[in-house]
């Protein structure tokens, strides 16, 4: 795949630190390792800097899961546990990701994909 070359001035502009609140979604294999739990909590306790619009449970496959789908489901449940402790409602905010790892160019469907597409169509702001 060939990517277009950016003008150096445009590249510097895009690399500048953002000002104001940053809109974000968090795609995380939360059950896999503890760093993701910290990322979820840090994002949610930083409303002055981050506007967390969704949390997506990502698949993983290692000794902590029986496969990608199991890893994603464990991450989804871990996200729900964290939000419960933070008294944050998961309704319309937490989405299940793919039940498999992307292995080629064929897309995979999931709640996460549907939500991300919907969010991308909502407006022009980053």
Automatic annotation (TrEMBL):
Residues 116-126 have a biased composition (Basic and acidic residues). InterPro entries: Ribo_hydro-like (IPR036452). One of its GO terms (molecular function) is hydrolase activity, hydrolyzing N-glycosyl compounds. Residues 104-126 are annotated as: Disordered. Coiled coil: none annotated. This is Inosine/uridine-preferring nucleoside hydrolase domain-containing protein. It comes from marine metagenome. The lineage of its organism: unclassified sequences, metagenomes, ecological metagenomes.
């Amino acid at each position: 795949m060939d990517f277009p070359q950016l003008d150096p001035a445009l590249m510097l502009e895009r690399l500048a630190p953002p000002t104001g609140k940053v809109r974000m979604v968090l795609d995380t294999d939360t059950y896999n390792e503890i760093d993701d739990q910290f990322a979820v909590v840090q994002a949610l306790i930083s409303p002055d800097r981050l506007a967390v619009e969704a949390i997506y449970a990502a698949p993983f496959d290692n000794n902590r899961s029986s496969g990608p789908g199991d890893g994603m489901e464990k991450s989804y449940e871990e996200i729900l546990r964290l939000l419960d402790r933070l008294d944050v409602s998961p309704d319309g905010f937490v989405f299940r990701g793919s039940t498999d790892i992307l292995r080629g160019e064929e897309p995979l469907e999931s709640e996460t994909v549907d939500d991300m597409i919907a969010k991308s169509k909502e407006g022009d702001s980053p």
